[in-house]
Design goal:
The protein has 225 residues and is α+β, with helices and mostly antiparallel strands. It has one domain: 3-Layer(aba) Sandwich (L-fuculose-1-phosphate Aldolase), CATH 3.40.225. It is 42% helix and 14% strand. It contains 7 helices and 8 strands; from the N terminus they run H-E-E-E-E-H-E-H-E-H-E-E-H-H-H. It has an 8-stranded mixed β-sheet, with helices on both faces. Helix 1 packs parallel to helix 5, helix 2 crosses helix 4 and helix 3 crosses helix 5. The longest helix is centred in the last third of the chain and has 24 residues.
Length: 225
């Protein structure tokens, strides 16, 4: 993928997270790993008005290059890429249900086995820190340890992925889980799956989906040759 193509895909991802309402207005931000740094949406510009040239490059030292300032949350994007070599895309939103739980400082426990899609038996909520600060980034990195997503107290959520499509799909999944958990809490206390069961689910998730099936078939064909 060329740099121009990636810039266009970042904009498309930002627009895609707004269209179903998992983000609104100019809140939230999107980035993708590029060379030694990352490309990220600019600060305070409507996604509908964003052009490829508006996307900002932040290098490995945190220096921004572009005609606009980067998103105010560039720090945790930058730090995630530095600490997570498996991550090539980051999406941050202020989606309604995830943010509602985050405003209560609640982790999302294993009330549903699909919580495992984030990489563990819970979706952690990072402690509050002022937006755009190093402390927020530090808190987020801790909450993301061995996870692909987290909530940010009184703020929103972060999701990560190997591609922008992966990160966006996980954003949709996390928001759905937060909605289900929120609704369950209105009725009573949800039953929580055991740590043993979630370990079983996580093992099954390792071979879940089309990509794993295709990989297995390729390995089988290679051996037969």
């Amino acid at each position: 993928m060329t740099e121009l193509q990636l810039r266009k895909q970042i904009i498309a991802t930002a627009l895609a997270m707004n269209s179903p309402g998992i983000n609104r207005g100019t809140s939230g931000n999107v980035s993708a790993r590029w060379k030694s740094g990352c490309l990220i949406t600019p600060s305070g510009l409507r996604y509908e008005d964003t052009r490829p040239s508006d996307i900002v490059f932040v290098d490995s030292r945190g220096n921004a290059r572009g005609k606009r300032p980067p998103s105010s949350e560039w720090r945790f994007h930058h730090d995630i890429y530095r600490s997570r070599t498996d991550t090539c895309a980051v999406v941050h939103t202020h989606s309604s249900f995830a943010t509602s739980l985050a405003c209560l400082g609640k982790d999302v426990p294993a009330f549903h086995y699909m919580v495992a899609v984030t990489g563990g038996d819970s979706i952690r909520c990072a402690p509050y820190a002022t937006f755009g600060t190093q402390q927020l980034s530090t808190n987020a990195l801790k909450a993301l340890n061995n996870r692909k997503a987290c909530l940010l107290a009184n703020h929103g959520m972060i999701t990560t992925g190997k591609t922008l499509d992966d990160a966006l799909a996980l954003t949709v999944e996390v928001e759905a889980l937060c909605e289900q958990y929120w609704r369950a809490l209105q009725v009573g206390k949800p039953a929580i799956l055991s740590a043993k069961e979630m370990r079983t689910v996580l093992k099954k998730f390792a071979s879940y989906g089309q990509s794993s099936t295709i990989t297995a078939r390729r390995k089988s064909k290679t051996k037969s040759r």
